[in-house]
Amino acid sequence: MYVDRIMTREVLQVTEDTRLPQLAALMRDHHIRHLPVVREGHLVGLVTSHDLERVSPSPITTLSVGEANYLLGKLTAAKVMRSKVITCTPDTLVEEAARLLRQEKIGCLPVVESSGQLVGIVTHEDLLDFFLEITGCLMEDATRITVHLPDTIGQLGKLLTAINEAGGYIATVVSPLHPDQTGLRIAVVRYRAPNPHTLNQHLRDLGYDLLTETLPPARK
Question: For the chain, how long is the longest CA-to-CA vector?
Fold first, then answer.
């Protein structure tokens, strides 16, 4: 999946002459931590909440409140922004975007076309929402099971086939690459079925080791 499927398209953006009090108000009022700075729609910089904190007066400053506010009011986005911004394109893979955020220790990735036009932004929140979606964490009608499997070819396929043949519909599957301390691989499966109790017992009868099982809430 590509970044353009999960990015925030309605991006609040500012120009280089936007003054610091307005930057702070925008972040506060819209509950955001990043403001792309654009010139004719093209990305030229990024202002973060950390940048605003960096230029804020120290608690031990000798300036009066009025003097401090006056000086801060003269600062613009061009003075406090980061001009070297790590970005991605709409066709960047989601996992590559996550790797960049983690590797570079940054909070967002502005999404730009090859021309430099800003078309979106990807934040930690966007990636968290994506993770919740692909793992099925928000599905209220699915049963979740964690199963120990031998770390050999075909074992995951056999498990999924067993669930299907017992009347279960596979919703999501997550299986970390490396075995745990027992030498076995773990598969986390979410499935829908009319009677998950019976299906889970069927898997146990087949010899599967169900480490955990979380059933959907009973219908009222």
Answer: 77
